[in-house]
Amino acid sequence: MSSASDTAAWEIVIERVFDAPRELVWEAWVDPKQVDLWWGPRGFTTTTHEMDVRPGGVRRLTMRGPDGAEFVNKSVYKEVVRPERLVFAHSGGGEDKTGVSFEATVTFDDLGDNKTRVTMRSLFPSVEMREMVVREFKAIEGGRQNLERLAEHLAARR
């Protein structure tokens, strides 16, 4: 039997509390028109090509960095529990599957008083891959910026 501490070296966990009701936060995650407005670190833009939010459904998007570099991403939803949890298998690097892969679990906790805690947990297939995305892609800071952009998007919608 494994515990959360057993996987700590293999995962990245990023959490933030939003001043918005859970349903509004959920919609920002599952509506491609909204996702394109906030997804990615600062300076990035996102184009969603496909987003079918159901078990077995696919999300395809391209993120463009400030330098014009493009990052192709694909996710396949494994679990969708509205408005509580999304679980998906993520792969990057295009169809050749040589890029980064991980399983993500995003939870949406209703804290009352129109506050929602989002926890993003990314579990990598190896410690080495986790270390590489932290080092090469600045994944922890990028994840925090991603949630900062979501907070700004939600504030603008209220």
Topology of this protein?
Layout: H1 4-7, E1 11-18, H2 22-30, H3 32-38, E2 45-51, E3 58-64, E4 70-81, E5 85-92, E6 101-112, E7 115-123, H4 127-136, H5 139-157
Antiparallel strand pairs: 1-7, 2-3, 3-4, 4-5, 5-6, 6-7
Number of separate domains: 1
Q: How far is the first residue's CA from the last residue's CA?
A: 44 Å
Mean pLDDT: 92
Q: Can you tell me the CATH class?
A: Alpha Beta
| Strand portion | 35-45%
CATH superfamily placement: START domain
Number of strands: 7
Architecture, CATH level 2? 2-Layer Sandwich
- C-alpha geometry: globular
**Main β-sheet, spatial strand arrangement:** 1-7-6-5-4-3-2
Query: What is the gyration radius calculated from CA atoms?
Result: 15 Å
Helix content: 25-40%
Q: Which parts are unreliable, with pLDDT below 50 for 5 consecutive residues or more?
A: none
Count of helical segments? Answer: 5
Largest sheet: 7 strands, antiparallel
SSE run: HEHHEEEEEEHH
Structural class: alpha+beta
Oligomer: single chain
> Which topology does CATH recognise?
Alpha-D-Glucose-1,6-Bisphosphate, Chain A, domain 4
